[in-house]
């Protein structure tokens, strides 16, 4: 690529292409002076395009290649690249790189707009030429202020990506021509049929800033992606650990708030042998197990207490204890005697085995065979 010394437009190109955001153009965008940040600064570069049948073997000098003018525009903190494709000469972005701040301070807005050395051929917006109202300097300045960035009134309803505000020129166009660009869908027809002008699309554009920023952020984004994956893995592990902890706590609570349950080794047994009782419940809780007759049966048998046997223990760490209920000898002898009264007592006695622990209780029915 070769830097051009002027901003004059060459013949209309046959081929349309977008600027590639690399190499010299990227370097030029970064090298723009700080004083040009708020107002446009335009750098012009000559590029070469392929031409049919022309190769290095047939043309080592490249003289037969097609030349395409390309621009780097920096304005108001934005940077964008454009390729010369619309064939419009003049009336483009104003290049403030030839208008330093102290030098231009006394100049009027109109003098800045028409300053010969600041004229360029790059149109960042579509335009409608040949319409007197749109070529009027007052209307061109009306949407821009004291330091105009563009020597035209845009003919579109969207921003060019250079910090420009469509609402400003839409109002001017509506006032000057009666056309409401915000409601327009066919801009060519609105210009050429409605106003008798000539519609020109904007020069082909691609954002240099986006590519430069993307390239600069790529290493950081890769690190962020790695850290994000590590964080996600850590979060999943933490979630699994929390779920396991909740499950363990639930199991613990269930174990230590478990209601007691009584199980008899036999449903029928003799008084002398007694019966084994398994009690399950909350670990380490004390348990009291009794073998009882009804009071009526106890009176018939001449027993002062309906409780025939009692055992106490403590549930182990697994929440279980095995106890044996066996009446004393005196009770066993009493159960074997005939009653003193004429009341008849059945040879098989129905008894209740009851377990009490921590305010909970369970019971089971059994038969003592005499």
Structure, described:
- The protein is α+β, with helices and mostly antiparallel strands and 370 residues long.
- 29% of the residues lie in helices and 24% in strands.
- The longest helix is centred in the middle third of the chain and has 49 residues, at 208-256.
- It is rod-shaped, with a radius of gyration of 50 Å.
Helix content: 25-40%
By DSSP, the count of extended strands is 15
With helices defined by DSSP (H or I, 4 residues minimum), what is the helix count? 10
**Reading side by side through the largest sheet, how are the strands ordered?**
1-2-3-4-7
Strand content: 15-25%
Low-confidence segments, given as residue ranges, are 1-37
Cα separation of the termini: 119 Å
Main traits of this protein?
370 residues; alpha+beta; five-stranded antiparallel sheet; five-stranded mixed sheet; rod-shaped; disordered N terminus
Write a brief structural summary:
By secondary structure, this protein is an alpha+beta fold. It is built from 10 helices and 15 strands.
């Amino acid at each position: 690529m070769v830097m051009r010394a002027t901003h004059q437009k060459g013949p209309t190109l046959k081929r349309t292409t977008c600027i590639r955001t690399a190499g010299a153009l990227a370097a030029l965008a970064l090298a723009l002076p700080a004083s040009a940040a708020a107002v446009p600064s335009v750098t012009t570069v000559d590029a070469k395009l392929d031409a049919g049948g022309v190769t290095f073997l047939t043309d080592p000098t490249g003289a037969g290649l097609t030349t395409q003018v390309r621009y780097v525009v920096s304005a108001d903190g934005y940077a964008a690249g454009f390729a010369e494709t619309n064939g419009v000469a003049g009336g483009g972005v104003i290049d403030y790189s030839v208008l330093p701040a102290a030098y231009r301070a006394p100049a009027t807005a109109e003098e800045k707009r028409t300053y010969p050395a600041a004229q360029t051929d790059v149109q960042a917006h579509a335009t409608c030429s040949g319409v007197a109202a749109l070529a009027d300097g007052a209307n061109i300045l009306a949407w821009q202020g004291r330091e105009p960035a563009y020597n035209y009134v845009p003919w579109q309803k969207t921003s060019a990506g250079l910090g420009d505000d469509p609402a400003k020129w839409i109002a001017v166009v509506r006032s000057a021509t009666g056309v409401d660009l915000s409601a327009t869908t066919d801009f060519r027809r609105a210009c050429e049929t409605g106003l008798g002008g000539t519609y020109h699309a904007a020069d082909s554009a691609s954002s240099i800033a986006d590519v430069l920023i993307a390239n600069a952020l790529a290493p950081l984004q890769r690190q962020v992606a790695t850290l994000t994956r590590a964080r996600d893995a850590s979060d999943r592990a933490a979630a699994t650990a929390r779920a396991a902890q909740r499950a363990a706590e639930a199991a613990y609570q269930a174990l230590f708030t478990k209601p007691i349950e009584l199980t008899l080794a036999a449903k029928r047994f003799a008084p002398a042998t007694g019966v084994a009782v398994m009690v399950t419940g909350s670990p380490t809780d004390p348990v009291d197990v009794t073998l009882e007759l009804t009071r009526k049966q106890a009176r018939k048998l001449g027993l002062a207490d309906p409780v025939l046997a009692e055992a106490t223990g403590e549930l182990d760490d697994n929440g279980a204890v095995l106890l044996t209920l066996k009446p004393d000898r005196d009770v066993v002898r009493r159960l074997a005697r005939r009653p003193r009264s004429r009341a008849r007592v059945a040879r098989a006695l129905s008894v209740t085995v009851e377990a009490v622990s921590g305010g909970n209780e369970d019971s089971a029915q059994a038969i003592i065979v005499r």
